[in-house]
From TrEMBL:
<dbReference type="Pfam" id="PF06094">
    <property type="entry name" value="GGACT"/>
</dbReference>
<keyword id="KW-0808">Transferase</keyword>
<comment type="similarity">
    <text>Belongs to the gamma-glutamylcyclotransferase family.</text>
</comment>
<dbReference type="GO" id="GO:0016746">
    <property type="term" value="F:acyltransferase activity"/>
</dbReference>
<protein>
    <recommendedName>
        <fullName>Putative gamma-glutamylcyclotransferase</fullName>
    </recommendedName>
</protein>
<dbReference type="InterPro" id="IPR013024">
    <property type="entry name" value="GGCT-like"/>
</dbReference>
<dbReference type="InterPro" id="IPR036568">
    <property type="entry name" value="GGCT-like_sf"/>
</dbReference>
<dbReference type="InterPro" id="IPR009288">
    <property type="entry name" value="AIG2-like_dom"/>
</dbReference>
<dbReference type="InterPro" id="IPR045038">
    <property type="entry name" value="AIG2-like"/>
</dbReference>
<comment type="function">
    <text>Putative gamma-glutamylcyclotransferase.</text>
</comment>
<keyword id="KW-0012">Acyltransferase</keyword>
<feature type="domain" description="Gamma-glutamylcyclotransferase AIG2-like">
    <location>
        <begin position="12"/>
        <end position="123"/>
    </location>
</feature>
């Protein structure tokens, strides 16, 4: 597979729901080549009241995740939109699991490193079992919304990724 040098190519380290091809495939509207990697110096936190995790610097931390490779600028923009303002996209260095080779990639870091809502450690398998369907649904809605905002805001589908709170 050859790619022209003109096409911008972005590699993004993901550690939450986007590790799941069923979710990232919808958001990116294609299935990228995905490789396993580890990010050192960060911890994968749960967030109170939310179903998605965040990462934040942590001295001896390590986060296992995936690198979505060869993304276009448009696909990166989709990720930026869905991650929203609470995450900051930064360049980090990961180590590829299979080859131990180092790679500079983009990743989404939780903006508020002192957030009291961060706790424990997020569990991908548990998320897959309990919440994946909901995320696939939310991702479909996101893409529909992006194609036709129709007066709706990002908040409409954002509520999908919050835990169900009892009705007032």
């Amino acid at each position: 597979m050859t790619s022209s040098d003109q096409s911008p190519s972005n590699n993004v380290f993901v550690y939450g729901s986007f590790q799941e091809p069923a979710v990232s495939g919808l958001i990116l509207e294609c299935t990228p080549v995905i490789v396993s990697a580890q990010l050192n110096g960060f911890h994968l936190y749960r967030l109170k009241g939310r179903l998605h995790p965040c990462i934040s610097p942590s001295e001896n931390g390590k986060v296992n995740g995936k690198v979505l490779t060869g993304l276009t600028d448009g696909q990166l923009e989709n990720l930026d939109m869905i991650e929203g303002a609470e995450y900051v996209r930064k360049t980090v260095e990961v180590v590829l699991t299979d080859t131990s080779e180092k790679m500079k990639v983009e990743s989404f870091i939780w903006a508020n490193k002192d957030d009291p809502d961060m706790y424990g450690e997020w569990d991908f398998e548990e998320w897959k079992r309990l919440h994946m369907e909901k995320f696939i649904e939310a991702s479909k809605k996101f893409i529909e919304w992006k194609k036709n905002p129709n007066g709706k805001t990002r908040e409409e589908f954002e509520k999908f990724v919050h835990e169900d709170s009892p009705a007032e």
